[in-house]
Amino acid sequence: MPRAVNLARHPTGAVRPEDFEVVETPRPEVPEGWFLIKNRVFSLDAGFRQWMSAGAGDNYLTGMQLNEPVQSIVLGEVVESRHPDYAVGTLVNARTAWEEMSLLDGTDLCSPLLAADDMALSEYMSTLGPTGMTAWLGLNHIGQPKSGDVVVVSAAGGAVGTIVGQLAKAAGCRTIGLVSSAAKAQWLTDEVGYDLAISREAHPDLAQALVEAAPEGIDIFFDNVGGSVLNTVMQHLQEGARLVLCGAISQYEAEVEPVSHTWELITKRARMEGFMFSDYIDEFPAVIEAMEKLLRAGELKTFDQCYQGIEQTPTAFCDMMSGASRGKCLVVLED
Ligand SMILES: NC(=O)c1ccc[n+]([C@@H]2O[C@H](COP(=O)([O-])OP(=O)(O)OC[C@H]3O[C@@H](n4cnc5c(N)ncnc54)[C@H](OP(=O)(O)O)[C@@H]3O)[C@@H](O)[C@H]2O)c1
User: Fold this and answer.
1) Pair 21, 27: CB distance under 8 Å
2) Is the C-beta atom of 277 inside 6 A of ligand 1?
3) Nearest residue by C-alpha to atom 12 in ligand 1
4) Residues 101-120: pLDDT tens digits?
5) 14 lines ligand 1 (CB under 6 A)
6) Does the Cβ of 180 fall within 6 Å of ligand 1?
7) What integer pLDDT is reported at residue 335 of this predicted model?
8) What is the domain partition of the chain in residue ranges?
9) What CATH number does the domain located at 130-278 have?
């Protein structure tokens, strides 16, 4: 029987593996207009933590229910079909759940995937998937990088952050990454290619560290963290700065913190804008093509951490949330 990972309890505070349960589920019957996919890769995304809490749910997604499979973006292959657009063998990207088999009707961010022969399938759940789209579209549409800009990225060692840093660097910017540990900061400069990395471990006073790292101020802040980090960075802006609000991970498992330095946006003529990657769905094919070229040319590198097998999913998700993993966190399912 196919397995799924259910939400066993609504997490409070830091998510734990015991919040999830791996269960066996009956293989679904396929009604007319539907198709069944066998999932190959799960994308583990920090944003989904928001919708795991009790009472969660907003204009974007419904809150997750207990004893239901945990929502996720996945890559799968059609194994049975009664849908005209999804023949058996088609690869599919979809927002469904942590399950070995998913029954779909082609809605909800579902689309056939044309994977290039020379790309690993996992690339389509990282650089060539929603993570890469988020990095590219947020940076280019809202950040609008120019050569010489100082770009600061929070959660810089994660899935989105490792791509944003490389893209900003390729655009001629000076890149500064914010991370938790000194070891991750070292990796960020040595391997990912950030010009500078500031860790909370080595530099608990972020405000002072930013004054030293960017004495002229920050042109672009690509923010994945929110809360006090955003509030602090807002005090070090360059005239005409752009603040890309991508995520607020510091607020997903804790009390929401106030952001008080909005006056700085006025005097610095700065612009702060949030976005969801799915706003730009029409641009995905062109962005994927551009990113494939960069990957082939070796001008962009995917940093990922793959966990094997559905039973590893709870641990993988917790590792990603706590910062124990680096780059894009994925679960690869057995054949
Ligand atoms: N707007 C969109 O369309 C969109 C799409 C995708 C993702 N996102 C957002 O982008 C952000 C990154 O997502 P991702 O999937 O790429 O995750 P990720 O960056 O791979 O993983 C999350 C990282 O955030 C850091 N972190 C965790 N708690 C933190 C805290 N309290 N303060 C500071 N840093 C903390 C950890 O790294 P450290 O070791 O550095 O602490 C952790 O590894 C999330 O906020 C997510 O919601 C937005």
Assistant:
1) no
2) yes
3) 224
4) 999 999 988 999 999 999 99
5) no
6) yes
7) 74
8) 3-126+302-332, 130-278
9) 3.40.50.720
pLDDT at res. 108: 82
Which helix (H) or strand (E) is 104 found in, with range?
A: strand 101-104
137 lines ligand 1 (CB under 6 A): no
Ligand 1 center from residue 249 Cα (angstroms): 5
Q: Which CATH number fits domain 3-126+302-332: 3.40.710.10, 3.40.605.10, 3.40.50.2000, 3.90.180.10?
A: 3.90.180.10
Rounded CA-CA distance 252/14 in Å is 9
d(CA 98, CA 102) in angstroms, rounded, equals 9
Distances (CA, A) of 138 to 160, 211, 243: 10, 25, 10
24 Cα: distance to centroid of ligand 1 (angstroms): 30
Report how far residue 329's alpha carbon sits from residue 72's, in angstroms, rounded to the nearest whole number.
Answer: 12
Residue position matching structure tokens 């810089």: 156
**Please, where are the H alpha helices in 81-181?**
130-137, 159-170
Tens of pLDDT, residue by residue over 166-204, are 999 999 999 999 999 999 999 999 999 999 999 999 999
DSSP notation for 16-81: -GGGEEEEE-PPPP--TT-EEEEEEEEE--GGGGGGGSTT-B-SS-BPPPTTSBPEEEEEEEEEEE
Residue with tokens 């679904």: 28
Which atom in ligand 1 lies closest to the alpha carbon of residue 179?
A: 40
Determine the longest span between alpha carbons in the chain, in angstroms.
63
Q: Please name which of 51, 42, 41 lies closest in space to residue 15, comparing C-alpha atoms.
A: 51
Considering the chain, what percentage of its residues have pLDDT values greater than 90?
A: 96
